[in-house]
Structure formats: structure tokens, C-alpha cells
Amino acid sequence: MRLTFHLPGEQNIIFKDDDDLEEIVEEEEEKCTIFLAWMEANKKLEAGQTLTYGEFPNQFVYDRVSREWHPCKRGYSIGRLNYVPPGTCDIYYMRILLAVQRGCTTYEYIRTVNGIIYSNFQDACYSMGLLCDDREFIVAINEVAELASGHQLRKLFAILLISNSNSNPERVWNATWTLLANGILYERRKALKNQRLNMTHDELKNLCFIEIDEKILNSNARSLKDYQLMPYPEMSDVRLFQNKLIEKDLAYDTNELTHTNLYTKQKMTHEKRTTHSRFSIPITITDESTCNIKHDNLKAELLIQSSLIIWDEAPMLNKMCFEALDRTLRDLMSVTDQHKTHKPFGGKVVVLGGDFRQILPVIPKGSRHDILASVINSSHLWSFCKVLKLHTNMRLLMFSSDQDEGEMKRFANWILDVGNGNIVSIVGDESEVEIPNDLLITTTDDHLVDFAYPNCCKTCQITGIEKKYLSSNTICQADENEDVQQEWFTPEFLNDIMFETTQSQVDFEDRSRCNATLKHRPNFGFMQRDKINS
């Protein structure tokens, strides 16, 4: 007979989706599980007071209708306690005690040894000699410390936690923490460039806990919170340097900002985050949806520490995405300040960028009214927004000649007039407008190729040895190490490769569409495939 057991108030409750929760709780409080019925039977049946929980079915049978144990009239059953893994802590130690304790009537009785009521089941197991004292692990860490680094010792300690080898991991930690924290002070001095930096024992322990938890246990889907007796690090100011998400966002070198800004557009193409990945917004969203971010999550800590959120192309997203983030931020920020529950986005400053003259949210099979109703300006959050307009066209500042600037200015003004509906549309169809002749490409030959490569014919006349380079910024898919090389050779790296050679011929090939032959000049880099295709 399979015997179930549970901690106080943690019995399983089965109910249907349409059941009333209050009625369910009231009914379950009156019902007894097979485990609670066993303790009640020990109060009434003297014969059962000499038996353990596993031995009880030998002389008694459980009536599932009345939820009571009764003496067997014929035959017997063999009891078997459900298996519980060691990592479950309290219920695991309670199972050990249930195998030896007899006639238990309450949970306190299970924890009672020689008349002493222990505060938890693990201490009761220790007092009865049912657990080892973990001396072997303490000795092992001290031996390994003579050859291994502090990081390797922390990894060893994490392995002991993951494998549930320690019966009392807190004791092992207290005996070896000075060895486990070895090297942390050196790493912090090196990171902060401050050789005079000193830390207290509590700060060293805290940093050691953070490294074990976030860098080792989290990668194995574990956390220090899974081990009830282990202390958990205090996420104070030091969290800013140890939270992987915050550390990644703050990990920049001010000396390289000038160089980085030259590739802003290129880097944004590959490194910008979508709102669904950054805020964990559900793909299928409703009016009551929230972001999938828990309070103890690293992403939650990142949002709490953030002072500004910039959300580009906001008019293209459904208003329910913004409302989901609003509900989530109100909930997260309420931990630090209850008043922020009533503030939009939890009191965070959110900058929404975009233009309502561009593409609005796509509503499958939706009418014009449905599309307009899904835009952010139809949300209740719009009343808290302050509209700021840009008046300077930054693209005009990129041109050196007045003629180019004038042409771009006329084109920009015409685009704005189209968006504002100031251009006269073609009769019968308001979605079609007439494009001025000076903006049209009148030739039908290779006008775009001539514009992109004006000296193509001249470079073909340069003499020299011909060399061929594939004009692609991607890794060859036929390579067996494609996945690894995708991480090593990023598009930014490939685009930055420059050739320091004499004049020679380069034949840029695109096997899918066309071949373009160019003469190679010094410092001529790879061209992206989309440029060749054009």
C-alpha cells in the first residue's frame, strides 16, 4: 500500500476550474488525508501506537469513504512510504523520521526525541543519529584547497549542493567559507581598479554566495533558495555588480564610446532587444495579461534598478503590451514603495518613440475601427503621456553641400505632407498619391547599379592578379562547426575586416542573383550581400 504524507497545510487539493475557491478551502479543512487520519487513529487505537507509519497497514485498513483507519478483519497490506528526493529538505527528513517514530499523533510528536521537541525535522534526525555529520566533505574541501583555486572550490561546493550530498550544507559552509571565498577580494580589486579595497567577512560571504548562486547554480536550474538551511545573499548595492543583466548593461568603457558610436546603426541591427524578450511580454496577449517576470527574478531586479525605459516604434504595437508592462511594473515597484502601485509604470520614466503616420498594429481580419482601438493613444495610459515633437531633421545635417541638403529637405517635406494627408490623392482612391517627376527614376536600365558603383567600368580596367572574395557576412552553412563559428565571427567582425594589399582585382560574387566585378583598392573591406544584390 502506497502511503502518502505531507508537511502541515501542504496537502494536495483537487478541484475543477469552475469550483468556488472558498467552498473548496472549507471542505478540505474538514477532510482528513490518509496521513492525518493515521495520526488521528493513533489517538484512539492503542494497538497502533506501537507501529510506525509503514507498519500500520499490517494491522489496519484505510476506509476512503469515511477517511478513517479501521482494524483489519482479514489479510494485511505492506505499507510503502512515497519516495522523496533529498533536495526537498523538510519533507525528506520527515520521511526518515516516519520510518522509525511510532504512534505519532501530531507533527510535534514526530520531531520529539527523548522528550525534547526539536524546531525542525533535520535536527531531530541528527539527535537520533540518522544523518552523517559531513566531516568527509569538510576534509575533502580542505585537501582540494591546497591545489585548486577559489573558483574551483566554489564550483565543487555547488556540485555537492546539486547532488544533494550534504546532509547539512550550512555546516560545511561555515567550516570552509574562508577557502571558498578565496580570490574574491582580488577579483573585486582588479575590477574596480582599487588595490586598497577591503571587505568585511560578511561582504566576502555575500559575494561568495552571489557567485555560487548566479554563476553556478543558476546555470544548472538551481538556486540557494532551494536549500532551506543555506543562507541567501543580501542583494544590496553589491547586486548592481553581480546581477548578470545589470552587469551586462553597465559593462561599457567610456574610452570606446566614440568608436562605438560610429557603428550605432550596425550594432543596433543585431543587438537591440525586442520588447517581448526584454519584458517577457506574452505572444498571445489579452486585456488582463502581465509580463512573465517574478519578484525574485534577475530581470525583475534589472527593471527595479532602471531609471529610464526607451521603447521605440511604440505605435506599431498593441496597447495591451504597454498595459501588461504597466501592471507588472506597478507590482514590482510596490515592494520598494506601496505608493508606486498607483503610478503609471510603477513611477518609471518611459519614453515612447514612433510616428502614428507609419504602420499601426496589425489586427487579423480586423476593421479600421479595431485597428484604431488597439493603438496606444486609445489606452487609459495615454492620459498620463506628454507628447513631445521633433522639429529638426537630423539627416539634413549629414550633407556637406547645400544642393544635396536642399534636395533632401524637399523630399522630407513631401514625405511629411503625404503622412499628414496634405497631398492631393488620385481620384477614386485616397490611398494613392502622385509622385513628383524629380523623385522618380525615369531610366529602366541599370540606374541603381550605376548609382551604387559609379566607377565600376574604370576599376575593371586596372591590371593585376585577380582574386575572388565571397561578398557575404555569414558563415558557410556547410561547415560542421557552423554553430560555434556563428558566435566567433559576428557580422560586425566580418564587416570590419580590411585588406592591406596593393591594387588587385576582386571579383565579388553572389551566386544567387548576380556577379559584380570590382577592382580592389587598399583598405577596401567586405561589402554586405544586400549591397551586391542591389
Automatic annotation (TrEMBL):
PANTHER family: ATP-DEPENDENT DNA HELICASE, PTHR10492
EC class of the enzyme, as a word: isomerase
Protein family per UniProt: Belongs to the helicase family.
Keyword Transport belongs to the record: no
EC numbers, comma separated: 5.6.2.3
Gene source species: Arachis duranensis (Wild peanut)
Listed GO biological process terms: DNA recombination; DNA repair; telomere maintenance
GO molecular function, one term: ATP binding
Pfam families: PIF1 (PF05970)
Record bears the keyword DNA repair: yes
Gene3D superfamilies, per database record: P-loop containing nucleotide triphosphate hydrolases
Keywords: ATP-binding, DNA damage, DNA recombination, DNA repair, Helicase, Hydrolase, Nucleotide-binding
Domain DNA helicase Pif1-like DEAD-box helicase per the UniProt entry, residue ranges: 272-424
Catalytic activity: ATP + H2O = ADP + phosphate + H(+)
Names of the cofactor(s): Mg(2+)
Protein name from the UniProt record: ATP-dependent DNA helicase
